[in-house]
Amino acid sequence: MSTTFTIDTATSRATPTPAPMKRLTVPAIQRRKVDGRTDEPLVMLTAYTARQAQLLDPHCDMLLVGDSLGQVIYGLPSTLPVTLDMMVAHGAAVVRGSYHSVVIIDMPFGSYEASPQQAFASASRIMAETGAAGVKLEGGAAMADTIAFLSQRGIPVMAHIGLTPQAVNALGGYGARGKSQEEHAKILGDARAVAAAGAFAMVVEGVMEDLANLITEGVDVPVIGIGASARCDGQVLVAEDMLGLFERVPRFVKRYGNMAEMVSEAAAAYAADVRSRAFPTDDQVYRPKI
User: Which has the higher per-residue pLDDT, 12 or 111?
Assistant: First the structure.
Protein backbone atom coordinates (compact mmCIF):
# COMPACT_ATOMS: atom_id res chain seq x y z
CA MET A 1 0.00 0.00 0.00
CA SER A 2 1.17 3.53 -0.68
CA THR A 3 1.72 6.06 2.03
CA THR A 4 -1.42 8.08 2.74
CA PHE A 5 -2.00 11.15 4.83
CA THR A 6 -4.95 11.48 7.16
CA ILE A 7 -6.02 15.09 7.55
CA ASP A 8 -8.36 16.27 10.29
CA THR A 9 -11.75 16.67 8.62
CA ALA A 10 -12.73 19.30 11.17
CA THR A 11 -10.09 21.70 9.86
CA SER A 12 -9.51 20.75 6.24
CA ARG A 13 -11.48 19.84 3.13
CA ALA A 14 -8.55 17.78 1.88
CA THR A 15 -9.21 14.29 3.17
CA PRO A 16 -7.32 11.65 1.18
CA THR A 17 -8.63 8.18 1.92
CA PRO A 18 -6.63 4.95 2.17
CA ALA A 19 -5.57 3.93 -1.31
CA PRO A 20 -7.06 0.76 -2.80
CA MET A 21 -3.99 0.35 -5.03
CA LYS A 22 -0.24 0.76 -4.89
CA ARG A 23 1.31 3.97 -6.13
CA LEU A 24 3.06 3.59 -9.47
CA THR A 25 6.85 3.66 -9.38
CA VAL A 26 9.59 5.01 -11.61
CA PRO A 27 10.61 1.46 -12.69
CA ALA A 28 6.98 0.75 -13.58
CA ILE A 29 6.97 3.83 -15.81
CA GLN A 30 10.21 2.70 -17.46
CA ARG A 31 8.82 -0.78 -18.10
CA ARG A 32 5.94 0.64 -20.12
CA LYS A 33 8.37 1.02 -23.03
CA VAL A 34 9.38 -2.37 -24.40
CA ASP A 35 11.67 -2.85 -27.39
CA GLY A 36 11.39 0.84 -28.20
CA ARG A 37 7.59 0.90 -28.12
CA THR A 38 4.89 1.85 -25.62
CA ASP A 39 1.58 0.13 -26.29
CA GLU A 40 -0.50 2.28 -23.95
CA PRO A 41 0.73 5.90 -23.91
CA LEU A 42 1.59 7.43 -20.55
CA VAL A 43 -0.70 10.16 -19.23
CA MET A 44 0.83 13.14 -17.44
CA LEU A 45 -0.65 16.43 -16.24
CA THR A 46 0.62 19.22 -14.06
CA ALA A 47 -0.72 19.64 -10.53
CA TYR A 48 0.09 22.30 -7.95
CA THR A 49 -2.33 21.76 -5.05
CA ALA A 50 -3.61 18.85 -2.97
CA ARG A 51 -7.19 19.19 -4.25
CA GLN A 52 -6.07 19.40 -7.86
CA ALA A 53 -3.98 16.27 -7.32
CA GLN A 54 -6.98 14.43 -5.86
CA LEU A 55 -9.04 15.18 -8.96
CA LEU A 56 -6.36 14.37 -11.53
CA ASP A 57 -4.61 11.47 -9.83
CA PRO A 58 -7.03 8.64 -10.77
CA HIS A 59 -6.64 9.47 -14.46
CA CYS A 60 -2.88 9.92 -14.68
CA ASP A 61 0.26 7.83 -14.58
CA MET A 62 2.36 10.82 -13.55
CA LEU A 63 1.70 14.20 -11.98
CA LEU A 64 4.21 16.94 -12.69
CA VAL A 65 4.63 19.75 -10.19
CA GLY A 66 5.88 22.08 -12.88
CA ASP A 67 7.68 25.38 -12.45
CA SER A 68 4.90 26.62 -14.72
CA LEU A 69 3.17 27.28 -11.39
CA GLY A 70 5.06 30.59 -11.45
CA GLN A 71 2.87 31.77 -14.32
CA VAL A 72 -0.26 29.75 -13.61
CA ILE A 73 -0.57 30.42 -9.86
CA TYR A 74 1.65 33.39 -9.09
CA GLY A 75 1.16 35.47 -12.24
CA LEU A 76 4.88 35.72 -12.93
CA PRO A 77 6.04 36.62 -16.47
CA SER A 78 8.11 33.43 -16.81
CA THR A 79 9.33 30.43 -14.84
CA LEU A 80 12.66 32.09 -14.00
CA PRO A 81 11.64 33.70 -10.66
CA VAL A 82 10.30 30.41 -9.24
CA THR A 83 12.13 29.36 -6.08
CA LEU A 84 13.05 26.04 -4.52
CA ASP A 85 10.84 26.88 -1.55
CA MET A 86 7.84 27.28 -3.87
CA MET A 87 8.50 23.95 -5.56
CA VAL A 88 8.89 22.14 -2.23
CA ALA A 89 5.68 23.59 -0.79
CA HIS A 90 3.55 22.75 -3.83
CA GLY A 91 5.26 19.39 -4.35
CA ALA A 92 4.45 18.28 -0.82
CA ALA A 93 0.82 19.30 -1.32
CA VAL A 94 0.53 17.25 -4.51
CA VAL A 95 2.06 14.18 -2.88
CA ARG A 96 -0.41 14.50 0.00
CA GLY A 97 -3.31 14.75 -2.41
CA SER A 98 -2.39 11.73 -4.56
CA TYR A 99 -2.06 7.99 -4.07
CA HIS A 100 -1.70 6.50 -7.53
CA SER A 101 0.49 8.65 -9.78
CA VAL A 102 4.24 9.03 -9.82
CA VAL A 103 4.87 12.60 -8.66
CA ILE A 104 7.76 14.43 -10.35
CA ILE A 105 8.88 17.90 -9.28
CA ASP A 106 10.60 20.48 -11.45
CA MET A 107 13.94 21.83 -10.29
CA PRO A 108 13.70 25.61 -10.64
CA PHE A 109 16.10 27.85 -12.50
CA GLY A 110 19.33 28.38 -10.62
CA SER A 111 18.97 25.36 -8.34
CA TYR A 112 21.02 22.83 -10.34
CA GLU A 113 23.00 24.36 -13.20
CA ALA A 114 26.17 25.36 -11.30
CA SER A 115 27.40 21.83 -10.56
CA PRO A 116 26.26 18.27 -9.96
CA GLN A 117 26.84 18.88 -6.27
CA GLN A 118 24.49 21.88 -6.26
CA ALA A 119 21.92 19.80 -8.12
CA PHE A 120 22.20 17.00 -5.56
CA ALA A 121 21.71 19.41 -2.65
CA SER A 122 18.57 20.83 -4.27
CA ALA A 123 17.19 17.50 -5.44
CA SER A 124 17.79 15.76 -2.14
CA ARG A 125 15.90 18.53 -0.35
CA ILE A 126 13.00 18.17 -2.77
CA MET A 127 12.87 14.41 -2.30
CA ALA A 128 13.20 14.54 1.50
CA GLU A 129 10.66 17.31 2.10
CA THR A 130 7.98 16.29 -0.39
CA GLY A 131 8.00 12.51 -0.70
CA ALA A 132 8.06 12.81 -4.50
CA ALA A 133 9.37 10.02 -6.72
CA GLY A 134 11.80 12.10 -8.74
CA VAL A 135 12.83 15.45 -10.16
CA LYS A 136 12.84 17.01 -13.61
CA LEU A 137 15.52 19.30 -14.96
CA GLU A 138 15.95 21.13 -18.23
CA GLY A 139 18.89 20.75 -20.57
CA GLY A 140 20.41 18.18 -22.89
CA ALA A 141 24.02 17.06 -23.28
CA ALA A 142 25.22 19.89 -21.05
CA MET A 143 23.27 18.35 -18.15
CA ALA A 144 24.33 14.73 -18.80
CA ASP A 145 26.97 14.69 -16.04
CA THR A 146 24.47 16.13 -13.57
CA ILE A 147 21.82 13.57 -14.53
CA ALA A 148 24.35 10.76 -14.07
CA PHE A 149 25.48 12.19 -10.70
CA LEU A 150 21.91 12.31 -9.37
CA SER A 151 20.88 8.94 -10.82
CA GLN A 152 23.89 7.19 -9.33
CA ARG A 153 22.89 8.59 -5.93
CA GLY A 154 19.35 7.29 -5.99
CA ILE A 155 17.48 10.30 -7.37
CA PRO A 156 15.35 9.47 -10.43
CA VAL A 157 15.66 12.20 -13.05
CA MET A 158 13.31 13.11 -15.86
CA ALA A 159 15.08 15.18 -18.50
CA HIS A 160 13.52 18.02 -20.51
CA ILE A 161 14.83 18.89 -23.97
CA GLY A 162 13.77 20.83 -27.05
CA LEU A 163 12.00 24.01 -26.06
CA THR A 164 13.26 24.60 -22.52
CA PRO A 165 11.35 27.51 -20.93
CA GLN A 166 14.08 28.27 -18.38
CA ALA A 167 16.38 29.09 -21.32
CA VAL A 168 13.82 31.31 -23.07
CA ASN A 169 16.18 34.30 -23.06
CA ALA A 170 18.94 32.31 -24.76
CA LEU A 171 16.49 30.72 -27.21
CA GLY A 172 14.94 34.05 -28.12
CA GLY A 173 11.33 33.02 -27.50
CA TYR A 174 8.92 30.11 -27.32
CA GLY A 175 8.92 29.08 -30.98
CA ALA A 176 9.18 25.46 -32.14
CA ARG A 177 12.67 24.01 -32.11
CA GLY A 178 14.46 21.74 -34.56
CA LYS A 179 13.63 23.57 -37.78
CA SER A 180 17.22 23.88 -38.96
CA GLN A 181 19.45 20.88 -39.66
CA GLU A 182 21.92 22.10 -37.03
CA GLU A 183 19.31 22.44 -34.29
CA HIS A 184 17.66 19.18 -35.35
CA ALA A 185 20.96 17.33 -34.89
CA LYS A 186 21.67 19.06 -31.57
CA ILE A 187 18.33 18.13 -30.03
CA LEU A 188 18.61 14.54 -31.25
CA GLY A 189 22.07 14.43 -29.66
CA ASP A 190 20.63 15.86 -26.46
CA ALA A 191 18.05 13.07 -26.32
CA ARG A 192 20.67 10.39 -26.71
CA ALA A 193 22.95 12.03 -24.14
CA VAL A 194 20.34 12.32 -21.36
CA ALA A 195 19.13 8.77 -21.97
CA ALA A 196 22.68 7.44 -21.79
CA ALA A 197 23.28 9.46 -18.61
CA GLY A 198 20.49 7.62 -16.81
CA ALA A 199 17.36 9.76 -17.17
CA PHE A 200 14.38 7.45 -16.59
CA ALA A 201 12.24 9.44 -19.03
CA MET A 202 12.32 12.73 -20.90
CA VAL A 203 9.93 15.51 -21.83
CA VAL A 204 10.33 16.69 -25.41
CA GLU A 205 8.69 20.08 -25.82
CA GLY A 206 7.89 22.22 -28.82
CA VAL A 207 9.84 20.39 -31.51
CA MET A 208 9.08 19.48 -35.11
CA GLU A 209 7.04 16.29 -35.41
CA ASP A 210 9.60 14.34 -37.43
CA LEU A 211 12.25 15.10 -34.84
CA ALA A 212 9.97 13.97 -32.00
CA ASN A 213 9.36 10.70 -33.84
CA LEU A 214 13.10 10.13 -34.33
CA ILE A 215 13.74 10.74 -30.64
CA THR A 216 10.93 8.42 -29.55
CA GLU A 217 12.19 5.65 -31.79
CA GLY A 218 15.85 6.27 -30.98
CA VAL A 219 15.95 6.07 -27.18
CA ASP A 220 15.00 3.27 -24.81
CA VAL A 221 13.36 5.49 -22.18
CA PRO A 222 9.80 6.87 -22.36
CA VAL A 223 9.46 10.13 -24.27
CA ILE A 224 6.69 12.42 -23.03
CA GLY A 225 5.60 14.88 -25.68
CA ILE A 226 4.20 18.38 -25.37
CA GLY A 227 3.88 20.06 -28.71
CA ALA A 228 5.76 17.15 -30.25
CA SER A 229 4.07 14.06 -31.78
CA ALA A 230 1.17 11.69 -31.15
CA ARG A 231 3.70 8.89 -31.56
CA CYS A 232 5.53 9.83 -28.37
CA ASP A 233 5.34 7.36 -25.47
CA GLY A 234 3.08 9.74 -23.57
CA GLN A 235 1.75 13.28 -23.39
CA VAL A 236 1.77 16.09 -20.83
CA LEU A 237 -0.14 19.37 -20.65
CA VAL A 238 -0.53 22.12 -18.10
CA ALA A 239 -3.81 21.14 -16.44
CA GLU A 240 -5.14 24.70 -16.38
CA ASP A 241 -4.61 24.98 -20.14
CA MET A 242 -6.33 21.64 -20.73
CA LEU A 243 -9.27 22.68 -18.52
CA GLY A 244 -9.80 25.97 -20.34
CA LEU A 245 -8.92 28.31 -17.48
CA PHE A 246 -6.93 30.60 -19.75
CA GLU A 247 -8.01 32.40 -22.91
CA ARG A 248 -4.54 32.34 -24.49
CA VAL A 249 -2.77 28.99 -24.71
CA PRO A 250 0.03 27.55 -26.87
CA ARG A 251 -0.92 26.06 -30.22
CA PHE A 252 -0.27 22.51 -29.01
CA VAL A 253 -2.95 22.71 -26.29
CA LYS A 254 -6.36 21.11 -26.74
CA ARG A 255 -9.02 22.42 -24.36
CA TYR A 256 -11.11 19.69 -22.79
CA GLY A 257 -13.28 22.08 -20.79
CA ASN A 258 -14.23 25.71 -20.40
CA MET A 259 -13.57 26.24 -16.72
CA ALA A 260 -12.95 29.98 -17.07
CA GLU A 261 -16.52 30.53 -18.24
CA MET A 262 -17.92 28.23 -15.54
CA VAL A 263 -16.05 30.08 -12.80
CA SER A 264 -17.09 33.47 -14.14
CA GLU A 265 -20.75 32.45 -14.38
CA ALA A 266 -20.75 30.98 -10.85
CA ALA A 267 -19.11 34.12 -9.41
CA ALA A 268 -21.63 36.33 -11.22
CA ALA A 269 -24.57 34.31 -9.85
CA TYR A 270 -23.11 34.48 -6.33
CA ALA A 271 -22.57 38.23 -6.57
CA ALA A 272 -26.15 38.75 -7.77
CA ASP A 273 -27.55 36.69 -4.87
CA VAL A 274 -25.48 38.57 -2.30
CA ARG A 275 -26.50 41.97 -3.63
CA SER A 276 -30.18 41.00 -3.72
CA ARG A 277 -29.95 39.34 -0.27
CA ALA A 278 -31.05 36.06 -1.83
CA PHE A 279 -27.99 34.48 -0.18
CA PRO A 280 -27.67 33.23 2.48
CA THR A 281 -31.01 31.48 2.88
CA ASP A 282 -32.40 29.63 5.89
CA ASP A 283 -30.32 26.62 4.85
CA GLN A 284 -27.04 28.51 5.29
CA VAL A 285 -27.57 30.23 8.69
CA TYR A 286 -27.46 28.95 12.24
CA ARG A 287 -30.49 29.30 14.54
CA PRO A 288 -31.33 27.90 17.95
CA LYS A 289 -33.13 24.58 17.87
CA ILE A 290 -36.68 24.83 19.19
Answer: 111
